[in-house]
Amino acid sequence: MAQYASIEIIRPDDWHLHLRDGAAMADVVGLSARQFARAIVMPNLKPPVVTTEQALAYRERILAALPASRDFEPLMTLYLTDRTTPEEITRAKDSGLVAACKLYPAGATTNSESGVTDIPRLKPVLEAMREAGMPLLVHGEVTDEAIDIFDREPVFIERVLRPLIDQVPGLRIVLEHVTTAEAVSFVRSGPETLAATITPHHLLYNRNAILVGGIRPHFYCLPVLKRERHRLALVEAATSGHPRFFLGTDSAPHAVGSKEGRCGCAGLFSAHAALELYAEVFDQAGALERLEGFASLHGPDFYGLPRNQARIRLIREPWTVPESYAFGDSQVVPMRAAETIGWRIERR
Ligand SMILES: NC(=O)N[C@@H](CC(=O)O)C(=O)O
Ligand SMILES: [Zn+2]
Ligand SMILES: [Zn+2]
């Protein structure tokens, strides 16, 4: 098998990113813009981004915080609630700047308190999205207390996603941050309108990372890391060349104090090195030739957006990740903190 010293690909996009807001956002946005041309920006701020007007204002704050040299396009999203109307979908579509809407089952993850409690009642909104050609992005976990946290994704697929696809056929759906073999086979056997994003952490780690040799809060995210057999299924899907699996980091920075407490927040921060971490995965799988499809082609194709023109080069050259990055009035601990990564992006 060829051992590439470097690899050049079309500049990638991140189809699932948390940028937060204010000074913290200003500290992290440049790290994503360094590698990605565009990113789907998640709307789970406090309070959430529920109207087109709020999404456009958030977009302006992101653009204002970008380093002058960076060309980076934030693709905005709306946070669906029980009160979202079909008219709001039309406004979002007409703005030309809102790319998708996000469904958080209420209580499923970080800042999802205002999420949807009654998904069947959302049908008129989902139909308006289908007419607008606007994808529905889904955090796919049930919140039922009786369901084990490691089973919440497969149960969501059977209880919620399968019926939803039947009720609104033709709606484009992205099952975000898939973590299980069940999700992979559901997407593979699903309609052409169903896709999934995969994170670097779910490709690189299994649940041992959280629990072996001490409890490691920086590996805690939702959906939680799963068994090794699930990780292997994700690697197979990502590196297979299948066009309905693509890159979405779910980089979700939290101030170090909110991760390392008695009740730590869910979310891993990977924006400092996301593409480099994906390169490791594809390299280990002997599939570097397929990185470009996963990182740069399948996403825009599914969203119906143009592919990027610029190119980016990754070099096989280890570097040590800092212990932390600035994050507003605090710090954020990055994935692989104080450890090495085998690839780096060529500076231009
Ligand atoms: N993934 C996470 O563990 N956390 C995300 C929310 C999410 O994507 O579910 C966050 O906003 O912190
Ligand atoms: Zn999520
Ligand atoms: Zn997320």
TrEMBL record:
What pathway does the UniProt record associate with this protein? Pyrimidine metabolism; UMP biosynthesis via de novo pathway; (S)-dihydroorotate from bicarbonate: step 3/3
A Gene Ontology term for the protein's cellular component: cytoplasm
A single GO BP: 'de novo' UMP biosynthetic process
- Name the InterPro entries on file: Amidohydro-rel, DHOdimr, Dihydroorotase_CS, Metal_Hydrolase
Active-site residues are 250
Q: What is its EC number?
A: 3.5.2.3
Q: What does this protein do?
A: Catalyzes the reversible cyclization of carbamoyl aspartate to dihydroorotate.
- Give the record's family classification: Belongs to the metallo-dependent hydrolases superfamily. DHOase family. Class II DHOase subfamily.
Q: What is this protein called?
A: Dihydroorotase
Instruction: Identify the species of origin.
Output: Allochromatium palmeri
Q: Which gene encodes it?
A: pyrC
